[in-house]
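dumping the sequnces here before i forget
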Amino acid sequence: MVNKQKNLDEMANLFKKNGIKNTKQRQRVFDYLASCNQPVTADAIYDALKIELLNDDRVNLSTVYRVLDIFVKNRLVTKTSFGNDYKAVFELYRVEHRHHLICVRCNAITAIKGCPLKGYEQSLSQATHFKILEHRLEILGVCPKCQN
Amino acid sequence: MVNKQKNLDEMANLFKKNGIKNTKQRQRVFDYLASCNQPVTADAIYDALKIELLNDDRVNLSTVYRVLDIFVKNRLVTKTSFGNDYKAVFELYRVEHRHHLICVRCNAITAIKGCPLKGYEQSLSQATHFKILEHRLEILGVCPKCQN
DNA sequence: GTAACTGCAAACCTTTTGCAGCTTG
DNA sequence: CAAGCTGCAAAAGGTTTGCAGTTAC
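..and the predicted 3d for all of it:
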């Protein structure tokens, strides 16, 4: 990880801005999420940190869940669920939101460029009088590799 | 339920066509799903049948799950998960597929007319070489009632 | 110093499974 | 009659919680 100190500082700021106490565990979960370009399960985060860190530095799975919860509540992270099993997956909230193509055979996840619903929410809001907050779109299919 | 016998016959045919053995339990679950205009959880189906039927006629929750599984495999029913909790919800497969608006406060579910992704899948398929099977779209917001 | 966080173990909730007995075709 | 379905109870898998000890501010 290049420029570690800078990252730490940025994280500390981000946490402070959101009233989130700055702990090692939170840094680690956040840092790991930042290094992923895909939605990941709580379990995957737990495993990744388990491997990366010394035994005594492990982040407990409950802590992972609690930390994720806080991140979600503060809108640093989004929580979704998709695919064939219905585990929750987490992803760093990015200003430019994304959708994914999921392969039903190998579960590979591919991000889609652009959002086909741009503009749609507004017309929907007018039609239904809902105040629209967000949408979740996932597309299921078979990836090129698995088509054989 | 009007025209009960006709419904039963239709169901029997539908089951036969799909090689699904025709049992009381399956009829009941299917019938209940047909009476819902919304996606429902396995538990909700179980509860509904529990109330509707005599004690001895209850459909066991495991059976509900097993029956739903069969319906899903035979594409009579779709399984999804959405909203704030991540339970699976089931809905009769309708030729014209639908999406829903979900109120994050009261969990009310409103069906949306039309699909904003018509035509999108094809261009996506060309761009990614995925064979696209289906998509899942749910929109979250606050319903008019809860906006106060 | 104190409020908040963490680890651990146990609880919880939805979903799945093994088995013995019953139903359907 | 045989194959397959159901109920029951128990297990499984993901997620949450209570509590006692530790840490950040």
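The domain at 1-93 of chain B is CATH 1.10.10.10 (Arc Repressor Mutant, subunit A).
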